Amino acid sequence: MSGLGTIANALAIIGGTLIGVVLRRGLPKKWQQTIMQGVALCIFVIGLQMALKTGNIVICVVSLVIGSIIGEALDIDGHLQRLGNYLANKFYRGADGSVAAKIAEGFISATLIFCIGAMAVVGALQDGLKQDATILYAKATLDGIISVILAANLGIGVAFSAVSVFLYQGSLTMLAGFLQPVMTEAVLNEVTACGGVLIMAIGINSLKLLEIRISNQLPAVLVAGVLAYYFI
Prior knowledge:
- It is a single chain.
- The protein is mostly helical and 232 residues long.
- The chain is 80% helix and 0% strand.
- The chain has helices at residues 4-25, 29-51, 57-74, 76-91, 97-115, 118-130, 134-154, 161-174, 176-179, 185-206, 219-231.
- Helix 5 (97-115) runs parallel beside helix 8 (161-174).
- The protein starts with a helix and ends with a helix.
C-alpha cells in the first residue's frame, strides 16, 4: 500500500521529538548550549555537502535571488511567525514571543532538513510507482534520530515538521506517475544544492553568527527546480 513509508516517517519525527523534549529537561543549560553548537556545526556540514551537488552554481545564485524576492513579497517569514504565535498560544497558554519564535524556528529548521534531499523525493516516487517504501523506512529511522537531537535543542516545534513531511512526501507519492519524468537527476541535484545552502543558513542562525530570514528564501528551492528543468 502506497503512503505507509510517509506515515512511518511522520510518526518517527513525532516520537523522536517527544524523546528529545524529555531529554532536554534533564540537561543543564550549559550542556544544552554546547550541544546546540555542535549540532549547528553538523547541520552546516550537511548543508555544505548538499550544496556541492550543484552542476551549475549560477542556477543556485539566481534561484536564491529570485526566491528571496518572492519570499519577501509574500512575507513567508511573517506568516510563519504568526503560525508560531498561534501554536504557542494553543499549546502554551500565556507564552511570550520568545516561545513562539522558538516553535517557528524548530518547525522551519526541521522541515528543511527532513523535506529537502534525494531520499525524500526518490523514496516517495518509488513508493508511489512500485509500492516499495524501503527508502522511506530508512529515512524514517534517520529522521527519528535527528529529531531527538533537534528537539533537545529547539523544542516541540520540531514535531510540527511531521505535518510538512506528511503533506510533501504524500503529495509526491500520489503524483509519482506525473512527476517521475520531471524529476531528472539534474533537477534533483539543483533542488538539493539550493536546499543545502538554506540548511547551511540554519547552522549559521543556530550559532547566532547572523540572523538570516530563511523562510523568505524557501521559494528558491522551487525556482531551482524550474530553472534546472529548462536550462540543463
